[in-house]
Amino acid sequence: MIPRILLVLIILSISKMGLTQAIPLVETSYSIHKKEIQHFSFSLQKGYMLRAILIQEGIDLGIRIYRKNSDEMLANFDSPNGENGPEPIRFESPETGTYILAIEQIKGDSVSAGKYTLRQISIRPLLAKLDTSFTSGSNMRIDKLSALEIENLSNLGMVWGFLKYHHPAIARCDYNWDAELFRVLPKILEARSKTQADLVLEKWVDSIGKPDSCKTCRAVIMDSNVKMMPDYGYIFRDGNLGTSLIGKLNYIKNNRNQDDNYYVGLADGIGNPVFDNENSYSGMIYPDPGYRLLSLFRYWNMIQYFYPYKYLIGEDWNKILPEFIPKFINAADVTQYTLACLEIIARVHDSHANIWGNNKILNDYFGKYQVPVQAMFVENKLVVTAYYADTLSIKEKLKIGDVITKINGQPVEQLVKKNLYLIAASNYEKQLGEMPNRLLLRSRGTSLQLEIASNSHTRSVTIPCVEAERLNHGLDIMPMDFNPFPSDSSYKIIDGNIGYLFTGRYKDSQLANIKKTFENTRGMIIDMRTYPSEFMPFSFGHYIKPSPSPFVKFTVGDVSNPGLFVFGPTLSNGEPNASFYKAPIVEIVNSISMSQAEYTSMAFQTAPDLTVIGSITAGADGNVSAIQLPGGISTLISGIGVYYPDGGETQRQGIRIDLTVKPTIEGIKIGKDELLEKAIEIINSKNPDAGTLKK
């Protein structure tokens, strides 16, 4: 017999944790209370996926998945949709076994009880996972390409991507779509005419199967809410493909996938594309020709269907695919392959895009050593602006304000023109801002020969270099001191009675003290020449605004209609606040101001008396999406479209600036922050009785 006290404890434990039951196959309603955890069990074979749906009804719930008899969390689901709405559940089993789905109220939700419905949608195998063909290589050898072969490969790349994102069977993961490319590729290369290539493509399309008729596929009507319509490349261009093949592809377009797509999803609550199920083939440092084509086709189609700013690239993206096919095929070694990837990434013109991570290939190519000074382009000249720690007597050889005219005997302007195509950035100013650290001041040896112009004289100096990773936050090497004011607070009083805020060190926990310190100041300067260390649009935005007002709207892609981007509603910041900051505000920006800095600036621009000064910002706004390419190459794109409420662009153009102010070489020489001084001048001009500008 169980002792009474032990029985009570068991009952209390069961009451708290909940009984484990199977996930229902039909929609079933449950009640749940605060601090209660309810459990559901399910079994999966390795390579199978569970799909289920939970609908919240008056309570904000979190969903976690564990292995049975294990505390290790394998998945977590919590969309930012509050106490009502769907929580889609998709779980791919890492191994055969029994799993537990745990449901409980999230922290911070104040209701004492609520309801939800739950049902299992499906448990099915991910057939593509079972296809392990070509894991060690594509077995392709491609020699010099003819014009016909390039055209046929272009059509293959476009059709391959179209099917990947439109055909329901591929979306279900019934096919390893990388492997399918390698199966059809030899036949395309063997085709001696466009007609033969068409027949290969048509037979391939037939082998995948005809989709069922789609009852929810609707033609999109272009209106003010549609920012970008789908573009299918040359697939449906007159005279390109055969009539029969076009008819079958058109049927697939009109009866396209309307469910989840294994190869792409949209981030919950945000909408930027998620490409989580793309294999990076990181073990293939130098991929073979087939995999190099896969890399190109994968990237090109991601941009074609899920890049919100494709219309801003500045050239016809459809023409880029045939241009780059020979570049990827003819890449003779790992360096040329990596540079081909970098070149097409740069053609997107997105400051978020680059080859990210500790890329040894690019470090070796551009040089793993770097001159330990900070430099920037001022008045179209490369100017020394600051020092890192002076461990190599750099100050004796280079002075602040020195103009670097030649590097290893080559004029700087020629080096810029020669290498600009490898600098991924949204606009020319941002490209120039990236060039010193990424390319110009890099060396493959331990020194660099510079020609310096200073005070009407020219001299040549040899500058010792250090490991570039020490200047660019390498993870394995102690970085050199690059911050001249490491212990500064984010805020202070300057020029007697002006509040100054450096957003790169701001924390919301400081806001109460900032309000008190800035309470009677005659103005505030917000320095956005950095990346904000806290998400400020709403917390700090409430402080500087008297009431809510719209500041931004977004476009997001559509998995059910790839290539379509539609505007959502405008988003506001601010709250009713009679004690908001009422004095003039000046915000300073430049090309360093990027992404969150630009988004935050848009939020602040709706304050009543705020002036933005400086120069064009980085022009890369919106949540980023990660992309993996064969060879372990990682890059990013801006994943959602970010616009002013009136539809004004921010990508490539940067945020709106009220007054353009740029530093000068003379100002740098004498240590003046001319943008800061201009901000002080503007505030003083709005406070004529406050005294003159302090020197």
Mean pLDDT: 91
Number of β-strand runs = 33
Percentage of helical residues? 25-40%
Strand residue content: 15-25%
How many helices? The count is 19
Structural class by sheet pairing and helices: alpha+beta
Q: Roughly how many Å apart are the termini? A: 89 Å
Shape: globular
Poorly predicted runs of 5 or more residues = 5-17, 474-480, 691-695
Largest sheet: 6 strands, antiparallel
Rg for CA atoms: 29 Å
Question: Can you walk me through this structure?
Answer:
The structure is a single chain. This protein is α+β, with helices and mostly antiparallel strands. It contains 19 helices and 33 strands. The strands form eight sheets. Strands 14, 15, 16, 17, 19 and 20 form a six-stranded antiparallel beta sheet that branches. A six-stranded mixed beta sheet has the order 22-23-24-28-29-33, covered by helices on one side. Helix 8 runs antiparallel to helix 9 (about 315-330) and helix 9 (about 315-330) packs antiparallel against helix 10. The longest helix has 20 residues, at about 145-165. It starts with a helix and ends in a 10-residue tail after the last helix.
Please give the structural blueprint.
Elements: H1 4-17, E1 20-22, E2 28-33, E3 37-44, E4 48-57, E5 61-67, E6 73-77, E7 84-92, E8 97-105, E9 113-125, H2 127-130, H3 147-166, H4 168-171, H5 177-190, H6 194-208, E10 226-228, H7 243-254, E11 265-266, E12 273-274, H8 289-306, H9 317-329, H10 334-346, H11 360-366, E13 369-370, E14 373-378, E15 381-387, E16 403-407, E17 410-411, H12 412-419, H13 428-440, E18 442-443, E19 447-454, E20 457-464, E21 466-467, H14 468-471, E22 491-494, E23 498-502, H15 511-517, E24 524-527, H16 539-543, E25 549-556, E26 565-567, E27 571-573, E28 585-589, H17 596-604, E29 610-614, E30 624-629, E31 633-638, E32 641-643, E33 659-660, H18 665-669, H19 674-685
Helix pairs in contact: 3-5, 3-6, 3-8, 3-9, 5-6, 6-7, 8-9, 9-10, 12-13
